[in-house]
Amino acid sequence: MTAVIEAHGLVKRYGSVTALDGLDLAVPAGTVLGLLGPNGAGKTTAVRVLTTLLRPDAGRASVAGIDVVDHPDEVRRRIGLSGQYAAVDETLTGYENLEMIARLYRLGRRRARTRARELLERFTLSDAADRPVKTYSGGMRRRLDLAGSLVAEPSVLFLDEPTTGLDPRSRVTMWEVIRELVDQGTTLLLTTQYLEEADRLADEIVVIDHGRAIARGDADTLKARVGGERIELIVRDAERLDDARQVLSRSAVGEVVVDDHGTGLTAPVDGGPDTLMQVLRELDAAGIGLKDVGLRRPTLDDVFLTLTGQPTDASTPDHEPSPEVGR
Amino acid sequence: MNGLLWSLHDGHVVALRNVRKIRRVPEVLVFVLISPIMFVLLFAYVFGDSIPIPGVDYREFLIAGIFAQTVIFGATFTGAGIAEDMQKGIIDRFRSLPMSRSAVLVGRTASDVIYNLLSILIMTLTGLLVGWRIRGSLLDALGGFLLLLVFAYAFSWVMAFVGLVVPSVEVINNASFIVIFPVTFIANTFVPAENLPGPLRTFAEYNPVSAVTQAAREAFGNTNPAFPPPDVWPLRHPVLYTLGWVGIILLVFVPLSVRQYQRAATR
User: Is the Cβ pair A100, B25 closer than 8 Å?
Assistant: First the structure.
């Protein structure tokens, strides 16, 4: 299969900060690539380069076979972009926002109107169509922003953290909407900080850190590397820790680790809730009391811990490094 | 359609959006219109009697100066509007569309002329109330208004560029204050240029703000032939000199701003 989105050795520096450090990507037609990484990893910069908003310092990138640096207008005609911060005009209504975008895609006045109404209908925003966007909830804004990126029915879509900051319900709604688009054959590049999101939506995941790909593969491959689910428990009585460890090691698929306090245990398992139940029954039979127990799925932190030996950098600022003025 | 027509089409769409915003947030408009009233009243009543202008009533002298200062300050809205769109990621949205590269700036500078039209209307009414009169022909006076608007339009491209460069809306307001205040005060706007000391006087004589003010004064018939302005070319040919500056500013700042727009990135 030929790649619809391709990048080779992308480099972008902002002063002394290297936002992209030789990134390679390839997204085959009709598939979803999840670009997974913490804040400041270079996800947004990558999207900005691929969507022609930013020129790379080195490397090449193309969308639908068209070079993003040489023919940005041609690329723009074929892509849709929905950003991290919903780029809709708050004082305009949802309808006005979409109609304006449609006219800027040069759809013509009448076609622009119909298209705006169609999209509002499709994203269940018809009731709010004629209200200023500032009255919308976060989820509605994101849906409107996504609708804006679909005005010209692009075959290639870029979504930069489409669910960051959304409540769980809006997030699931958003996932359904995105899933639908993908089922219709859209090629999608999605950035996210959530492993679960990449897991749900992406065919392939590229984990990036400091502007470099540090792992790639499908969700199962990555999870296998991270160790999948684990059981975490804390015994009520520290003296029973060894007994608990023996019980747990029978169900574990890897090493059982004792925490720093000497009361907590963590062990990788497979089999999910069934395994957890099994462990609980055995602990109960052995008369070992618990303060806390849970089945934990790997998070982005776990992925990073495994891949880099370091947790995601909590000190990283909220935004990607800002470009300097007057570059 | 060719490139220029598409640019106008897209600029028109963007301008319509800005006009809608003006209507939705009338608070901004209120402040736009109050400050010229305040300036007319302050100068007319505070300095009115302390600044003697030979042969002309100070209030008549003053109005053209206030017109010039206010429409130039109007350019701040252009800069602030663009900085705000940058901050909110709307410029990113525009830039990801296959639209004309100049459209956002063309649309913004065009729609902001509305602010200046309204403030000229308000200032005219306030001026008439405090005793200012148009003593020339109405046609000349309209020409004077037009020249003020054209000069302000050109200057709005300067602020458009500043809006694309500064990191936030707040900075725009300070930046415009620092630039526009001296430029509009070291001129013949509020006092005759002759009254200024040495280098300031020279600056004032060649300051395009002085020329546009002088041109407006002549268009309104608020000058006295017995007391001509300083005998320097710009003030002898204020209309030509102003239009020359309009040309220079547009030639420099239109390409510069469009280039900056293409490179601009959300902060």
Answer: no
Asked if the A3-224 domain carries CATH number 3.40.1380.10, the reply is no
Whether B265 sits inside 8 A of A81 (CB atoms) is no
Looking at the complex, report in whole angstroms how far the Cα of residue B227 sits from the nearest Cα belonging to chain A: 48
Chain B residues in contact with A55 by the CB 8 A cut-off are 263
The segment(s) of chain A belonging to CATH 3.40.50.300 are 3-224
CA distance linking residue A297 with residue A302, whole number of Å: 9
Contact A5, A156 (CB under 8 A): yes
- Bridge partners, A62 (sequence order): A6, A67
Element (H, E) at A265: strand A264-268
- Considering the segment(s) A229-296 as one domain, its CATH architecture is 2-Layer Sandwich (3.30)
User: Residue length, chain B?
Assistant: 267
Q: Domain ranges in chain B?
A: 3-263
DSSP alpha helices (H): ranges in B43-137?
58-73, 75-87, 90-95, 103-111, 113-129
Sign of the torsion formed by the C-alpha atoms of B140, B144, B145 and B150: positive
* Mean pLDDT computed over every residue of chain B: 90
pLDDT bin (cut points 50, 70, 90) of residue B141 is very high
| Ranges of CATH 3.30.70.100 domains, chain A | 229-296
Chain B residues within 8 A of A83 when measuring between CB atoms: 89, 92-93
Beta carbons of A238 and A198 less than 8 angstroms apart? no
Q: Please report the DSSP string for A143-180 in residue order.
A: HHHHHHHTTT--SEEEEESTTTT--HHHHHHHHHHHHH
**Cβ atoms A163, A141 nearer than 8 A:** no
Provide the pLDDT for residue A27: 95
ipTM, two decimals: 0.87
